[in-house]
Design brief:
It is an enzyme of class 3 (hydrolase). There is one protein chain. By secondary structure, the protein is of the alpha+beta class. It has three domains: 112 residues, Acyl-CoA dehydrogenase/oxidase, N-terminal domain (Butyryl-Coa Dehydrogenase, subunit A, domain 1), CATH 1.10.540; 106 residues, Beta Barrel (Butyryl-CoA Dehydrogenase, subunit A, domain 2), CATH 2.40.110.10; 154 residues, Butyryl-CoA Dehydrogenase, subunit A, domain 3 (Up-down Bundle). It is built from ten helices and ten strands. The strands form three sheets. It has a four-stranded mixed sheet, with helices on one face. It has a four-stranded antiparallel sheet with strand order 2-3-7-6, with no helix packed on it. Strand 9 and strand 10 form a beta hairpin. Helix 6 runs antiparallel to helix 9. The chain is globular, with a radius of gyration of 21 Å. It binds flavin-adenine dinucleotide (FAD). Flavin-adenine dinucleotide binds next to strand 1, strand 3 and helix 10.
């Protein structure tokens, strides 16, 4: 594998780095404090071309590879996990619609997402259905040309601002994953209500909310894909889901390490820079090595995806390692700030609150271990 980025990749990375440093970093604290989605910044990302980077050209995308997409997500996440979420969610949704949707659905829904004019949420999790995604209880009743949805979704990123929702529901709970279907539901559909924004510890500016469906009637033509619903949901989680989450975790850990390094070169105790205490140097050295390892796991999975190779195990490796690494290293970076790390004077306090989500969403890290183990068994059985 060639680890050298192309001139085009370097140019895109540098542009993302500069936007993150200048434009995103300037607003990150106020987004966190106000818990409001920054539409202007989201549209700015669209204007630069960072929404729909991997989307097919016929849908208005750039069809770039997953690797450069991961790099852009990492760079933006260095300044704000919340803002980078706009990219990961949008590309995840575009992936679903472009792979599963009809021509009409692609033409209708994808271009406004790429232009940053609309937001679409992905609604899978429910109050009683999290890790066990095949057990969704939201029902979809097909009646002639309509589908009627009933149930509740929980923790839906972007729901407070979304124009549409991709809703995962079941036509028959007895069928477990075989009964799962996806539907595109407009926000204004009668019977759909978005609950109050959840008061979260991090990722606060993304309008994460519950969504309720009470005899919510939509046209049957809003079904996304056929009966392969569950398989497609899982494949989407592998790609934009887990690789996006891993890239965000790498970016956040990198930002935390850079800020701790800078602080350690300014702060003196016992008559010397704290950097000169070997303990601090070793913490920074471990961070640097672990961040690089997480980045390479992520790039490896991205490269496999682009090469058309199986990448389920590799995406879970990346998400698992990057998520755990992020929590550990952002905590260590805060430690280097001592008491100042515990105040809101430095962004490291926000980084610490943002880090934890990377062990939870897109399949918790316990679930990633289950996926990896399942893949190991499959590989072993295939080899026998
Ligand atoms: C900020 C935020 C944004 C989110 N955005 C979205 C979104 O946009 N769309 C969406 O659909 N969902 C979203 N989620 C939901 C998220 O994906 C779920 O919270 C996650 O999948 C875990 O589900 P749960 O919270 O119900 O936990 P549970 O599944 O109840 O798990 C609780 C604990 O048990 C462990 N556990 C469960 N099963 C097993 C097992 N078999 N083996 C070992 N351990 C197990 C878990 O790892 C966890 O530690 C979001 C969540 C948050 C916090």
């Amino acid at each position: 594998m060639d680890f050298e980025l192309s001139a085009e990749q370097v140019a895109i990375r540098d542009q993302a780095r500069s936007v993150a440093r200048i434009e995103v970093a300037a607003r990150a604290a106020s987004i966190d404090a106000s818990a409001e989605f920054d539409w202007d910044l989201h549209r700015r990302l669209a204007e630069i071309g960072f929404l729909g980077l991997t989307a097919p050209e016929e849908c208005g995308g750039q069809r770039l590879d997953t690797l450069i997409w991961c790099i852009v997500v990492e760079e933006i996440a260095k300044a704000s996990s919340t803002v980078s979420n706009g990219i990961t969610l949008t590309d995840g949704i575009i992936h679903y619609i472009s792979t599963l949707g009809t021509r009409e659905q692609r033409d209708k829904y994808i271009p406004p997402l790429i232009r940053g004019e609309a937001l679409c949420s992905f609604a899978l999790t429910e109050p009683n259905t999290g890790s066990d995604a095949a057990s969704v209880r939201t029902t979809a009743r097909h009646e002639g040309d309509s589908v009627i949805l009933n149930g509740q979704k929980m923790f839906i990123s972007g729901a407070a601002y979304a124009d549409h929702f991709i809703v995962v529901a079941t036509v028959d709970r007895e069928l477990r994953h075989n009964g799962i279907r996806s539907y595109i539901v407009p926000r204004e559909a009668l019977g759909l209500t978005v609950g109050d924004k959840l008061d979260l510890m991090g990722i606060r500016g993304f309008g994460t909310s519950p969504v309720f469906f009470d005899e919510c009637r939509i046209p049957a033509s809003n079904q996304l894909g056929g009966n392969e619903g569950f398989r497609m949901v899982m494949q989407g989680l592998d790609g934009p889901g887990r690789l996006g989450a891993a890239s965000q975790a790498v970016g956040l850990a990198q930002a935390a390490m850079e800020s701790a390094l800078a602080y350690s070169l300014e702060r003196s105790q016992f008559g010397q820079l704290i950097f000169d205490h070997q303990t601090i140097q070793f913490m920074l050295a471990d961070m640097s090595a672990e961040i690089e390892a997480a980045r390479l796991l992520t790039w490896n999975a991205a490269w496999r995806r682009d090469a058309g190779l199986p990448f389920t195990k590799e995406a879970s490796h990346a998400k698992l390692f990057a998520g755990d690494m992020c929590v550990r290293n952002v905590s260590n970076a805060l430690q280097i700030f001592g008491g100042y790390g515990y105040s809101k004077e430095y962004p490291i306090e926000r980084f610490y609150r943002e880090a934890k989500i990377h062990q939870i969403w897109d399949g918790t890290n316990q679930i990633q271990r289950k996926i990896i183990a399942r893949q190991l068994r499959k590989e072993k059985c295939r080899a026998i």
